[in-house]
């Protein structure tokens, strides 16, 4: 799989936006940047969403707003509830209580497929390419409002043939941008892990979404392909889409995110500009534990090692 | 040993109405299992509803053929809804458990003595063929050639049965290459991914369950026309034979179930003729003729195992698909 990905990344990249210095969107919030602060133009507003699994409270978000037209990163240590929140917001899981709106419309209790039709499209942490469908069929499945997807109209090809051709042209265009056009007739199962991530993202774009939610887009992707994936995410913004993504790679978060929301133990503990939020004591606490700088007498070396590692990360400005 | 009789008896099965019925039921199962990934183990139940729906409508209510046909189809749509509403939201294996149980419930309901006046209980129903025979445009006499020579009723039945199979095959072929079929195949691969793309997966699975079930129901009617309706014909073994045919031909194919059914029945007939005569001729001295009757299923089982081992994608399946089986 990696051989494929390397040869693909080795091809000259021609990103439409500058690769090195992404244009950051600023002035997104009103007042002090902090957990649950108001945004100038929020696309997604979450209120008191709570989800428990038995005795464990996985998500307990009092209030959070996602700014429109920007790239927002959702970060947090493992088990912070990021993916659970994603599942709740997209209708794949039901919260115990709470409400949230997308573009002013309430999404509480709306099933996942209707959420997607409203223009809020997600991808998955474990890529869900439809293996035994061709890459082209994967793409065509993403298109919205297809006449031929009605069981009875499906039997009359003249009703949907033109629409199918339009979708096919659009899919081919997207595949070319994602450098998958040569693979269009292959089974999606034959793609490498990184190519599947690209395919999943391209497929999500077939429906012209307004909000793209990416769950760990970089997980398991070969570093050579990372840059091209980053460029694609930046392109989404330049095309007017809003991006919300979960990520563990802090370099990537700092590189492309305009806004960062930090979760820990199910709660939003900090929000802000990617550079500032990393200095926030709440964030350092979330990642390292509250007593990380106190000498508790057990292996102080290991403790300092962690602290210096995160400091290095914090200092590593581009 | 009369090889001629063995081969000609086997050849009869090639176009027999029973072969057509199994082909159609397998085609319905291809829609369920091969294309949508629904584990329906209750195809025998759908067939029983078709057979009983048709026979009871004619015998008890005196419906015309088309009315009886619609009653059977309607019963299977309701059956599919009853099965699907609680289970299609759950994981695939729950549907398997529910369908296998529901098909048995249907069979036992038709067997119970309480409704004997309508269902005929364990003896089943017969005497419902006149209405269908009355529609026969063919004059009396024999038609066909060689082993395929039949009287007017049997020829008429074969023409109708195979016309329905061909129509159904064209229907499945067309619908599976449409965007609807694409969604259905996507659901087989990963229903959450399809849901995330804005498709109402539950509705599609229900449509598929009803569509495949109706094909099974029509198969049940064809199955009933050359014989009597007997509840013991609709045991779970019937479903497993249909699965064997489906895997033999290729699960996600249109021609697979049809050719698979032909091969299955020709092989079954050939082995049964061969074993019976071999026992008679004293080639198998350790075996009685009753034991010989069971041996054919063993031989068919071995033949199917060999095909599945050496051609696991089935006869018409795409070898490439198996390179990526998870």
What structural class is derived from the secondary structure elements of chain B? mainly alpha
Write the element-wise H/E pattern of chain A from the N-terminal end onward.
Answer: HEEEHEEHEHHHEHEHEEHHH
Termini separation of chain B = 49 Å
Would you tell me the structural class of the helices and strands of chain A? alpha/beta
Mean pLDDT of chain B: 90
Number of strands of chain A: 10
Helix content of chain B: over 70%
Layout of helices and strands:
The complex is a heterodimer of chains A (318) and B (326).
Chain A: H1 2-10, E1 42-53, E2 56-67, E3 71-75, H2 82-89, E4 97-102, E5 105-106, H3 112-117, E6 120-122, H4 135-141, H5 157-177, H6 193-205, E7 211-215, H7 223-238, E8 242-246, H8 250-256, E9 259-264, E10 267-272, H9 274-277, H10 281-288, H11 300-315
Parallel strand pairs in A: 3-8, 3-9, 6-7, 7-8
Antiparallel strand pairs in A: 1-2, 1-4, 4-5, 9-10
Helix pairs in contact in A: 4-6
Chain B: H1 3-12, H2 17-36, H3 43-59, H4 65-87, H5 92-111, H6 116-119, H7 130-134, E1 142-143, E2 150-151, H8 152-176, H9 179-189, H10 191-196, H11 201-224, H12 236-249, H13 255-280, H14 289-310, H15 319-322
Antiparallel strand pairs in B: 1-2
What does this molecule look like?
Chain A has 318 residues and is α/β, with parallel strands linked by helices. Chain A is built from eleven helices and ten strands. Chain A has a six-stranded mixed β-sheet, sandwiched between helices. The longest helix of chain A has 21 residues. Chain A is globular, with a radius of gyration of 21 Å. The N terminus of chain A is likely disordered. Chain B has 326 residues and is mostly helical. Chain B has one domain: ABC transporter involved in vitamin B12 uptake, BtuC, CATH 1.10.3470. Chain B is 71% helix and 1% strand. Chain B has a two-stranded antiparallel ribbon. Chain B is globular, with a radius of gyration of 20 Å. In chain B, 48% of the residues are buried. Chain B: It is a multi-pass membrane protein. Chain B: It holds the Pfam family BPD_transp_2.
């Amino acid at each position: 799989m990696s051989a494929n990905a390397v040869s693909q990344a080795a091809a000259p990249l021609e990103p439409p936006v500058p690769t090195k210095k992404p244009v950051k969107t600023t002035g997104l919030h009103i007042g002090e940047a902090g957990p649950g602060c108001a945004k100038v133009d929020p696309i997604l507003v979450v209120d008191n969403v709570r989800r428990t699994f038995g005795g464990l409270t996985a998500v307990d978000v009092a209030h959070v707003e996602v700014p429109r037209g920007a790239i927002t990163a959702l970060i947090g240590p493992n088990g912070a509830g990021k993916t659970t929140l994603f599942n709740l917001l997209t209708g794949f899981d039901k919260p115990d209580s709470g409400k949230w709106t997308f573009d002013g419309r309430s999404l509480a209790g709306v099933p996942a497929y209707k959420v997607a039709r409203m223009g809020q499209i997600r991808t998955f942490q474990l890529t869900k390419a439809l293996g035994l469908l061709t890459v082209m069929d994967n793409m065509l499945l993403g298109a919205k409002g297809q006449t031929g997807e009605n069981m009875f109209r499906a039997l009359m090809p003249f009703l949907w043939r033109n629409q199918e051709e339009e979708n096919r042209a659009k899919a081919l265009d997207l595949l070319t941008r994602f450098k998958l056009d040569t693979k269009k007739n292959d089974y999606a199962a034959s793609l490498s892990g990184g190519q599947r991530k690209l395919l999943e993202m391209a497929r999500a774009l077939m429906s012209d979404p307004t909000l793209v939610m990416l769950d760990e887009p970089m997980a398991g992707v070969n570093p050579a392909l990372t840059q091209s994936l980053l460029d694609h995410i930046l392109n989404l913004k330049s095309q007017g889409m809003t991006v919300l993504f979960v990520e563990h790679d802090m370099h990537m978060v700092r590189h492309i995110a305009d806004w960062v929301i930090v979760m820990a133990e199910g709660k939003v503990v900090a929000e802000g500009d990617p550079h500032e939020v990393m200095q926030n004591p709440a964030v350092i606490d979330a990642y390292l534990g509250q007593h990380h700088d106190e000498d508790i007498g057990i292996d102080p070396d290991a403790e300092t090692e962690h602290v210096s590692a995160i400091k290095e990360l914090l200092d590593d400005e581009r | 040993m009369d090889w001629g009789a063995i081969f000609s008896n086997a050849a009869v099965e090639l176009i027999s109405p029973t072969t057509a019925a199994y082909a159609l039921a397998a085609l319905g199962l291809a829609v369920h299992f091969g294309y949508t990934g629904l584990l329906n183990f209750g195809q025998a139940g759908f067939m029983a509803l078709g057979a009983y729906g048709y026979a009871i409508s004619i015998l008890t209510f005196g419906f015309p053929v088309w009315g009886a046909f619609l009653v059977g189809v309607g019963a299977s749509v309701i059956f599919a809804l009853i099965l699907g509403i609680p289970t299609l939201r759950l994981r695939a294996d729950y549907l398997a458990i529910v369908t296998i149980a529901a098909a048995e419930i249907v069979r036992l309901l038709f067997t119970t003595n309480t409704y004997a006046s309508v269902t005929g209980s364990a003896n089943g129903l017969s005497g419902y063929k006149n209405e269908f025979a009355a529609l026969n445009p063919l004059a009396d006499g024999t038609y066909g050639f060689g082993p395929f020579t039949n009287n007017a009723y049997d020829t008429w039945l074969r023409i109708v049965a195979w016309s329905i199979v061909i129509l159904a095959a064209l229907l499945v072929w067309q619908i599976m290459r449409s965007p609807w079929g694409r969604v259905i195949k996507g659901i087989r691969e990963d229903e959450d991914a399809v849901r995330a793309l804005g498709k109402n997966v539950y509705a599609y699975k229900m449509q598929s369950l009803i569509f495949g079930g109706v094909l099974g129901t029509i198969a049940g009617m064809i199955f009933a026309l050359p014989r009597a309706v007997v509840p013991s014909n609709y045991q779970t073994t019937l479903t497993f034979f249909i699965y064997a045919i489906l895997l033999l031909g290729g699960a996600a194919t249109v021609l697979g179930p049809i050719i698979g059914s032909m091969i299955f029945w020709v092989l079954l007939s050939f082995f049964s003729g061969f074993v019976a005569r071999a026992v008679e001729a004293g080639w198998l001295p350790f075996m009685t003729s009753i034991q010989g009757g069971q041996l054919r299923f063993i031989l068919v089982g071995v033949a199917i195992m060999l095909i599945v081992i050496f051609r696991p994608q089935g006869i018409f399946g795409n070898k490439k698909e198996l390179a990526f089986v998870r």
